[in-house]
Amino acid sequence: MGAGNYDAMCAQCHLAPGLGASELSKGLYPAPPNLSKVTVNPAAAFWVIKHGIKASGMPAWGMSMSDDDVWSLVAFLQQLPRLDEERYRQLVAGSAGHSHGGMPTAGGTQNATEAHPDDEHDGRHGHQRMNEEHHGAKR
Prior knowledge:
By secondary structure, the protein is mostly helical. The protein has one domain: Orthogonal Bundle (Cytochrome Bc1 Complex, Chain D, domain 2), CATH 1.10.760. The chain has 7 helices and no strands. Helix 1 packs across helix 5, helix 1 (2-9) packs across helix 6 and helix 4 (42-51) crosses helix 5.
C-alpha cells in the first residue's frame, strides 16, 4: 500500500527511481529531499507526513490518512533508496494503488476531485485543496 500512495502523493516532489526532477520539484523552496536517494528516520518521517511542514510545499496528510496508512508509507520509505526503477514499478503495480482511509477507486487510484459518501473530507487532496482554499474557490 505504501508504494501506491507514495507514487500518487509523493513522487512528484520527492522523486522515484528512474524519475528525474519534475517542474514541481524544481520550483519548490526549500527543495524537497529526493527520497529515492536518502534514508529517513521513521519517527521523523511519520511526524512530517502526518503534520506537514508549515510554510513549505509539504502538506499534512494526517487529515486524510489514518496512522496505519502513514506507517505503511514510512515503511515503504525505508525500502525506497534500495529500489531500482523496475522494482519500484513492480511494487507500485502490486499495491492497492492510491488508497488510504478506505477510499480506493476503480483501477486503484483515487480521483482527487471525486467525492465519496464515506470520505472524512471533501474528496480533494493536498495541494489542490490548499490552493482552492487560499484562492477562495468554491466547489
